[in-house]
Amino acid sequence: MPSIDNALNLMNQGWLGTLLGILGIVFGLATYLWSRKRTSLSYAYLGEHLLGSKSDSLPEGISVQYQGEDIPRLTRSVIVLWNSGESTIMGSDLVDIDPLRFCVETDGELLSVSVLKASRPVNAFKIRHPSAHAPNEAIVEFNYFDSGDGVVVEILHTSASRQPDIKGTLRGLPKGLKPVGRMTRSSNPFRRTRIGRVLSIHVPKMGALIPIIFGAGFVLTGLFATPEVANNVMTLNFAQSNTAVLTMGAIYLGFGLFSLYLYRRKYPKNLHVEALE
Fold it and tell me: Residue 76 and which of 35, 43, 60, 251 are 20 to 30 A apart at CA?
């Protein structure tokens, strides 16, 4: 029968098996990402010296006081802390003998710790003032963090290091918190305008989409085009085949996806504040 013969001819096409294999991998990966349940608490930071520097204190003849006491320097660190997993993290999971706390190096002390933004009031995130025996640490508490919940905290301190730390033990997190690293801030003054901020976010992403579009085109050509069409697409003598087109497409796609990964926002969008720009 013609319909059966057409179906058999379709099944005998080499590209069909490749396409089904790719679709199977994509479906399996999507199913895994959709169903996984991780417990993860991450943090990223941004730091700068407002007065003084890492190597030197304030110049001689210049003094700055905080609540009547001289300080050697003034450092500002902003921390974004959020639930980067899928499972809810309860405040009762905090271990009393090793509480969750923001810390700076022992060469400095915390002057001020404030919450710039919280995802939801019901998280009930609280910060205790530093104690006399540990002036470089501030203990924190919260009710619970659902996936994506978190806070943005600003710390003013006198440590030479701009990189803060978060210490503590939570049940269900044997490896501790996950440091994402330092966030970068553009020094371009054009970024201070609204249009500049929008362009600085979307232009790099659009640049990453260009190789993805080209890569997808090469992959589709390699899968569905005839060898003659593939030869016309690939004008290089050493790469005149469907396999070469697929390889080139994979390279373009990989480059574009890696660029998107580099320009991604490391923290949830709902925790973005102007202090991080």
Answer: 60
